[in-house]
Automatic annotation (TrEMBL):
Organism phylogeny: Bacteria, Bacillati, Actinomycetota, Actinomycetes, Geodermatophilales
Protein's recorded name: Basic membrane protein A
Leader peptide range in chain numbering: 1-19
Domain ABC transporter substrate-binding protein PnrA-like: 45-350
Keywords: Cell membrane, Lipoprotein, Membrane, Signal
InterPro entries associated with the record: BMP_lipoprotein, Peripla_BP_I, PnrA-like
Main location: membrane
Homology family: Belongs to the BMP lipoprotein family.
Record's subcellular location: Cell membrane
PROSITE patterns registered for this protein in UniProt: PROKAR_LIPOPROTEIN
A Pfam family it matches: Bmp
Membrane topology type: Lipid-anchor
Length: 352
């Protein structure tokens, strides 16, 4: 992946808003867990908090595994309804001695640098954003690590799968919010579909415009947008829309069609077993692996901060889920394209 591509991904987001629970209230309170040991990990979620069956949940899984394996405890906090207290959440965790502190989502990029400078002995990680500013300089006191993902590469494989499985030569893409990173999902998906089937029709629509994050937590609108695509002839729709993806799955079920999930293996996490048959595959972004590996490196004293870790196809940081067996018959073709991306023969775009 080129440096330019990485920078395009940096500072962007794959915000996965979600269903809330008792931990996710307007005061930004959270819960904690413990498995013994001295490790204390703080996790500050993106909008909506844990329970989204996708992005935030995947980050939590990484924290949970790392604290279990290494012995230790964690505390989790969620932003208030307008997400105006992100800096306060990071400050609260650092104040209470949590180290490292994991910020989930690019939206923390505007505040994490200032907080990190106040706590130079605390290591911070930010998911889906860079530890460096536009000039390539560390955001904080060289104590921030960016955990990034080549989501465009995984989405390319999703586009290949959709093109190979469509029976109408017509597919769709529903983005949650029109931001640079979600556009990278779109760019990869469309490029993959066109590579496998140049004459394919790909409908693209976003639930909300840039700056309006409601598109990640509006299943009803997700269903309406996707239903419009199915009604026009699309038989597979990729949902890069966080919690709104449930609506896309519901539209697929109503249309006797298929959908593609995102971030986590949504066939396994969707919750409603009646929706499983429509989830053909999911474009995986292994936030859990990235967070787990980061914490393990922290425990081993390998984290220095002031740099980014890019998780791509080469590192198994992205890929496609195979649950349900719906794409078992095209694994050879998917591997062929994946190998070409890994070798550099195919350069996956990051912008539509």
């Amino acid at each position: 992946m080129t440096k330019a591509a990485v920078l395009l991904l940096a500072g962007s987001m794959a915000l996965a808003a979600c269903a809330s629970d008792e931990k996710n209230n307007s005061s930004g309170s959270g819960s904690s867990g413990s498995s013994g040991g001295d490790l204390k990990v703080g996790i500050a979620y993106d909008t909506g908090g844990r329970g989204d069956k996708s992005f935030n949940d995947s980050a939590f899984a990484g924290v949970e595994k790392a604290t279990k394996d290494n012995g230790g405890k964690y505390t989790e906090l969620s932003p208030n309804s307008d997400a105006s207290n992100r800096a306060d959440l990071l400050t609260q965790l650092a104040d209470q001695g949590y180290n490292p502190v994991i910020a989930v989502g690019f939206a923390y990029g505007d505040v994490i640098g200032d907080v990190a400078k106040q706590y130079p002995d605390t290591q911070f990680a930010i998911v889906d954003s860079s530890a460096l500013d536009a000039d390539g300089k560390p955001l904080g006191a060289s104590n921030i690590t960016g955990l990034q993902f080549a989501a465009n590469e995984g989405s390319f494989l999703g586009g290949v799968a959709a093109a190979l499985k469509t029976t109408t030569n017509h597919i769709g893409f529903v983005g949650g919010v029109q931001t640079p990173l979600i556009q990278a999902f779109e760019a990869g998906y469309v490029a993959g579909a066109k590579a496998a089937k140049p004459d394919i029709t790909v409908d693209v629509e976003y639930i909300s415009p840039a700056g309006d994050f409601s598109g990640f937590n509006d299943p009803a609108k997700g269903q309406i947008v996707a239903q419009g695509m199915y009604d026009k002839g699309a038989d597979i729709v990729y949902a890069a829309a966080g919690g709104s993806g449930i609506g896309v799955f519901q539209a697929a079920k109503a249309s006797n069609a298929r959908a593609i999930g995102v971030d986590s293996d949504q066939y396994q996490t969707v919750g409603d077993p009646t929706l499983q048959p429509v989830i053909m595959t999911s474009v995986l972004k292994r936030v859990d692996n990235a967070v787990d590996a980061y914490i393990n490196d922290f425990v081993d004293g390998k984290i220095k901060g002031g740099s980014d870790i890019v998780n791509d196809l080469k590192t198994d940081g992205v890929g496609l889920a195979t649950s349900g067996g719906f794409i078992d018959d095209i694994q050879a073709q998917i591997k062929e394209y994946a190998d070409k991306i890994k070798s550099g023969e195919i350069t996956v775009p990051t912008t539509p």
